[in-house]
Structure formats: C-alpha cells, structure tokens
Write a structure and sequence with these properties.
Number of strands: 3
Strand content: under 5%
Shape: globular
Distance between the termini: 31 Å
Strand order of the largest sheet: 1-2-3
Structural class: mainly alpha
Radius of gyration: 21 Å
Bound molecules: coenzyme A
Length: 379
C-alpha cells in the first residue's frame, strides 16, 4: 500500500450516509434535517430542535407540549447520581463527572439492555433531560453550594440557568443560551459522533455510546476548545478598565507571538470548514448581545484582536468554540463547565446518530497498514 492510500485522521473519507445533518464547507452552511441552523436558532426553542433531530420533522403544538412534558418530568437530579458525584473529588474535571453520570444513568435505566427504536428514543430523551442537573450541580458543588431543584414553569434553557445560578436570568441571557444549545446540537460525523457510532455499531447500548462520545469531546482539538479559548483570554489578561482598542492591541500582539512560536491557538480552524464555520455569525451575534448586556467591551477587544491577527497571518477563521467560550464566561459559568454545556446540547445529535446507526448497522472496523518489525522468533 502506498502512503497516499492511508487517510490519517480519516481526513476526506466518507464512511456512511446520514440524514441528520448536512455540512457544506463550500457554502459555509449547516442543515439539521434540511433546515439551516441559523433559521432554527432564530425561530425555535432548543426543545423543538431536539425533537427535529430525533424525529426528522419539527413538532406541531400537541407534539411539542407532550415532548416538553417528558423533558420536564426527567429534570430531577437522580439521588444515586448525586451520591456518585459527591464521591468524586471537586478537582475532578467536570467532563469526567458528566461521563461518569452518563454511565451511572445507563446502568440504572429500566431499559438498559433494550436497543429497540422505542427504548432508544426514551433513553435519549431521559438522558437529555437529566444532564442539565448534573452539569449545574457539579459547578455548584465546586463553589461549595447545594443543588437547586428544577423548576417546572421554565423552559429547558431558563431552567438550566436557574439550576446553575439559583436566580432567574434576563430574557436576553436565556435567549443567548438557547441559541448556543441549538448551534452545538449536531455536526455530522465529527470525532465524538463518530465515536458514538463506532460503539453503537458493535450493538452496544445508547448510554455506552454517549459515555464514549463524552470522552472524545473532552479533548482540546474537539469540544475542549471552548474552555481553551477562555484560557487564552485569561493568559492575555482580562482588564475590565480597558477600552476595546487597548484590549485589541494586546490581543494582536499575543497572537503574533503565539504564531511566531508555531502554537496552535484553540478556537480557530476546522477540519471541514476552511473558509469559516457556518455557526460563528449566529453565535457571535449572541456574544455581542451578551457583551452589551453585561457592559464588557474589553472582551470584544480581545475577541477582535485575536481574530484579526489570525486572519492577517494565516487566514484561519474562528470556529463555534471561539464566540461560545466568552459568552458562557459572561453568563457566569466556570471555564471548566463550558465543555459539559456542549455535552448537554450534543446528546441530541449523538443519540440521533445512534438511532440512525442501529437502523442501518454495519460493524465499523477499518484496516491498518502494519509498519512494525518483520516476523521474528523467540531465541
Ligand atoms: N492555530 C494555529 N495554526 C493552525 C490552527 C490553529 N488553531 N489550525 C490550523 N492551523 C494550521 C496548522 O498549523 C497547519 O499549518 P501548516 O500547514 O503550516 O503546518 C494548517 O493550519 C492546517 O492545520 P491542520 O491541523 O492540519 O488542520 P486539521 O484539519 O487537521 O485541523 C483542527 C483542524 C480543528 C484540529 C485544527 O484547526 C486545530 O487544532 N484547531 C484548534 C482546536 C479547535 O479549536 N478545535 C475545535 C474545532 S471545532
């Protein structure tokens, strides 16, 4: 086999069909079940988008009210999951906490070993409904705070923020959070979704697939980049007294130095999009609203400075994690909680792919070209 035949990182390899989403890097577009993601973000609740990803169509009024009732019924923090979380050190990465919670929820599910379409749909909705309480409680316990009970009168996003902060948030904050959940929900055969499909292809169960996907998402080349963006901002230094222009100048200098040292700067670049990430304009608009809402122009200065310097030096564009990181920071989330927020959202896309894989399964098992020692024998 010649070296060119080996597709390292599976770059450019099409491994299967999917009807869940379509990424078109030439037009910078992303469709969920045919709908442009920016239209969904402008007009839908995250609940409607979750329904769409799982069912292929947007819900009518009756379907939506039945669906949201199911989500609300599954919001409470499972007491066994809480006990397990409490047994973990507060220094454990929140992604490890999420991964553990997904695994415990799987082992405790009444349909654990049932992978029928009905059982998988129920397990997907239950896991999606349960994860916000896990993410919210984990941030609270690291701050020495108690868990807050879910509210039945709030939608998914408002309740998520309520359980995290114990205060109702302004409508524009809830809206920005809802937008971020929609944008993070699905993105075809990315590394974590592919992981979920590989696990499913062995006829393992849905929770095992999601647990493995969470492990894949944790890495900084994938979901962990939203956290890493905030570390970059922190390294440059967030100075609340600074003007937008001053912050931009410092950020540009930081980027020039980082690129001179051949560093990979998180939040920029994408395996599929080479002219810009389709989700960035929508998320950046949400970030702009949050910067205005919280009165923090210096963050926009850092954002603009890094983006401009990267564009001038390498023409590499930001990905979704770039505007999402500072948005979550402004809302009050700890940096380590950012990737778990991505988990809470992406459970919808992962499980839509799990169901699609089950419906048309073939064991995923690629080949490798051996380059170790020639056959040899014991003396
Ligand atoms: N910072 C600096 N340089 C970058 C870069 C970044 N974030 N992303 C890509 N590049 C450069 C590479 O150094 C390489 O340059 P070279 O040809 O001079 O060696 C070139 O662009 C191609 O990059 P490569 O890593 O081969 O592209 P890829 O398709 O394999 O990688 C990512 C895609 C996402 C892994 C990569 O862009 C990256 O590591 N980004 C940062 C992590 C991140 O934000 N991940 C979230 C993705 S949604």
């Amino acid at each position: 086999m010649v070296a060119e035949d080996i597709k390292k990182g599976l770059a450019g390899v099409v491994v299967d069909y999917t009807a869940v989403s379509k990424v078109n890097p030439d037009t910078n577009s992303l469709l969920y079940r045919g709908y442009p993601v920016q239209e969904l973000a402008a007009k839908c609740s995250f609940e409607e988008v979750a329904y769409l990803l799982w069912n292929g169509e947007l819900p009518n009024e009756t379907e939506l009210s039945e669906f949201t009732a199911r989500e609300r019924a599954g919001r409470a923090l499972d007491p066994v999951v809480k006990t397990v979380i409490d047994a973990l050190p507060t220094t454990a990465h929140p992604m490890d906490v999420c991964r553990t919670a997904a695994s415990v929820l799987g082992a405790r599910h009444e349909l654990a070993e049932d992978s029928s379409p009905e059982a998988n749909m129920k397990k997907a909705i239950d896991l999606w409904a349960a994860m916000p309480a896990v993410v919210a409680y984990d941030q609270r316990r690291r701050r020495g705070q108690d868990a807050i009970e879910a509210r039945q009168d709030l939608d998914y996003s408002a309740n998520f923020l309520w359980m995290t902060f114990g205060e109702e948030q302004a409508p524009e904050v809830v809206e920005a959070f809802n937008v971020s959940m929609i944008l993070y929900a699905e993105h075809s055969f990315n590394a974590s979704t592919f992981t979920a499909r590989v696990v499913t292809s062995t006829l393992s169960d849905l929770h095992s697939a999601v647990t493995a996907a969470i492990g894949a998402l944790k890495g900084p080349l994938h979901g962990g980049a939203n956290e890493a963006v905030m570390h970059t901002f922190d390294e440059i230094g967030i100075r609340s007294e600074e003007s937008l222009e001053e912050a931009a100048t410092r950020a540009k200098a930081w980027m020039e130095d980082a690129l001179a040292q051949k560093k990979k700067v998180m939040g920029f670049g994408h395996r599929v999009y080479k002219h810009g990430d389709s989700r960035v304009p929508t998320m950046k608009a949400a970030l702009d609203k949050m910067i205005a809402h919280y009165g923090r122009p210096e963050l926009l200065g850092l954002y603009n400075g890094l983006e401009q310097a990267m564009d001038e030096a390498k023409a590499i564009k930001p990905n979704l994690d770039y505007p999402a990181g500072p948005t979550y920071h402004l809302m009050g989330f700890d940096t380590q909680t950012f990737t778990p927020l991505f988990v809470a959202s992406r459970i919808t896309g992962w499980t839509a792919h799990v169901m699609e894989q089950v419906a048309s399964n073939s064991l995923i098992r690629p080949l490798s070209e051996y380059n170790g020692p020639e056959e040899r024998h014991m003396p």
